[in-house]
Design goal:
Two copies of one chain form a homodimer. Chain A is α+β, with helices and mostly antiparallel strands. Chain A has 14 helices and 15 strands.
Chain lengths: ~400, ~400
Amino acid sequence: MHDARSSDPDKLGWMKGFPPAKAQRIMVSDASAYRFPQLRWSFSHYQELFPTRPIDRGNGPHHPLNLSLRDDLDAVCFKPIGASEPMRWDDSLSKNFTDGIVVLHRGHRIYERYFGALGERQHHLCASVTKSFVGTLAAWLVHDGQLDPHEPVIRWIPELAKSGFGQATIEQVLHMTTAIRYDETYADPEADIWKHLKAGGVFPRSADDQGPGCFTDYLQTVVQSGTHGEQFAYRTPNTDVLGWILKRASDQTLSEMMAERIWQPMGAERDAALQIDSIGFEFAGGGLLAVLRDLARFGEMMRLEGQLGNRQVIPKAVIRAIRQGGDQKKFAPAGYTTLPGWSYGSMWWHAHDDHDVYTARGVHGQAIYIDPKAEMVIARFASHPVAANAQIDPHSLPAYRALADHLIRES
Amino acid sequence: MHDARSSDPDKLGWMKGFPPAKAQRIMVSDASAYRFPQLRWSFSHYQELFPTRPIDRGNGPHHPLNLSLRDDLDAVCFKPIGASEPMRWDDSLSKNFTDGIVVLHRGHRIYERYFGALGERQHHLCASVTKSFVGTLAAWLVHDGQLDPHEPVIRWIPELAKSGFGQATIEQVLHMTTAIRYDETYADPEADIWKHLKAGGVFPRSADDQGPGCFTDYLQTVVQSGTHGEQFAYRTPNTDVLGWILKRASDQTLSEMMAERIWQPMGAERDAALQIDSIGFEFAGGGLLAVLRDLARFGEMMRLEGQLGNRQVIPKAVIRAIRQGGDQKKFAPAGYTTLPGWSYGSMWWHAHDDHDVYTARGVHGQAIYIDPKAEMVIARFASHPVAANAQIDPHSLPAYRALADHLIRES
């Protein structure tokens, strides 16, 4: 079952039929929606499982991503991290349980594939790719002077005074250098991430669950552990705190900000949506649903320093601030063996390599990968059984780089 | 609290703030979402409360409804049913807790207003207006020969053999002349409608609820009471059965059918959505969410015998079959005092009057009102505190007629 072919949701018949047979039902209440291989269906049908808030694309035309398909990419070879044998690009897609992938070169769609339960008009869960959207909005508000990154979190969220965020600055939250006690090991059912997700309604609660019942209640229970600002530590609550700050500072929901500042001006082709908790609070840490080509559009707009078509969607200075990345010295101790020399800043992952690569990453292999040197953007949705990029990077990062090198050579 | 001004959700501050104050939260789990005045907010934020399946408008341009606002409509007067004093058109809007209203004359928007929690880009719950969409699809499949209305329901749904639908024909379901035991009195907490809505996840279930857990399980519990085909009786399960038949006959979800056959070809301006139960079964009886102007587009397309712009969206013969209406003699005993001489057919309400009016109606005042003689279409969303059109008709039906007469006189 642990390969893409045998876990193909279409072939397994999940949720087919009217109604689906009992053995093929995928539900939230019995947690089947989160189990592999069912999650290969769930991630492409998320709005059917949870309450969501729409992100309005508006009534304008969408920005075209002209199709110039190339047939030379499937055979591009790369060496997976830690492997001795090379692998072909097309084999890497199934290896990583890819649900959809678009490669843009100079803004043209040179490669596009959909697998499993995903179609080109379907939303997919973006998971932590969501964070990079939230970080981009935050960098924008900093640029506009609406947010001062040196101010404390409690300037906007006094409710967090007694929490682990009580002594943190907005900048520390934005670059995830807060020191909080938070275990994000998905494989451990006792990890804090589950308490967090249950509070937000992302994971079902048992009837006798006495834990917090919404994101904002949960965030107030997070405690400090160590000194803020010294090290990078990837902790999803930082993004939920940042989302909270953005709402207070803008007096808008994240959905409204995303719609007005990104989806509408960039010419998205379909409404997106954000998962919300029981009191309408958006899951900034991972709740974005979008179609793949809109992720590609966003990546292309980032690559072009905020411009898409004739439109300056995001000010150039905002993109430049984001692309400064984070502090590599603070990142190194976190021990990401597949990301040597990288950093995390403004909720983006920065390679600091000779291609100036930076990327948005989701825990099941979702990604926006921007390679400015190769003028290449990759948007990918995936539903890898293991929620850990350390499992996914070996067959994706070198594959992306090989594609970039190929494009530079063959253009 | 029982007038539109004092129940205005914006002024009451429901769900404002990040997070909203405890007293201003609206949730499904505590059933506050269904209470008045909270429902004035809920109906305009339904996707934020429930799982839904999107209805894809596609990537094409939307059909324009050109704006030619008239300022002479607010002063149009009519006599409410049972009243001695006349009422102005604009007063009728607040009287009926209108959330949004569009009046089209010859396809132009001559009047458009939004109130309460609704904006022009927001979905509103259509409630039983949904039924008229489902009935239209059914009439279409009959026209195409995919459905034979004289065949029994169990030709498609053998699971219903032992239920009250076991002896019914598709035609009886389509025109709601089945004889089933089903109490649709919303005011009575013991009424069958609540068991139905709890099964579908439309209303929250208590932890010890042993009742059916999805629509299809519920429908199998409905029992017969009387002889099918003799009388009209408005019973929502008929539409859910019809929706089930449509899915089996087309091998598509209702969302797919709505998207391909209506939303895309008519040039809708925004995706719509359908509420679904815990196993993804769509609520055909009342689960459509849409923006108001798309309801107006649909009404205009119906008025023009299936054509909108240069496109024949629905075959003329389908519209003509729908417009034959139902059997007035079978309708009369149901005792709708505000609808003398009317009938129900193909899940539409037919006035059989000198204007050939027919209309889609939702239980809190939602409506698509088509007046072919006056070349007028009205689309309205409302959130009346009382779930009963008998309370709403006195200030809407004569108002619509007065507007129609005014337009005929003044054009």
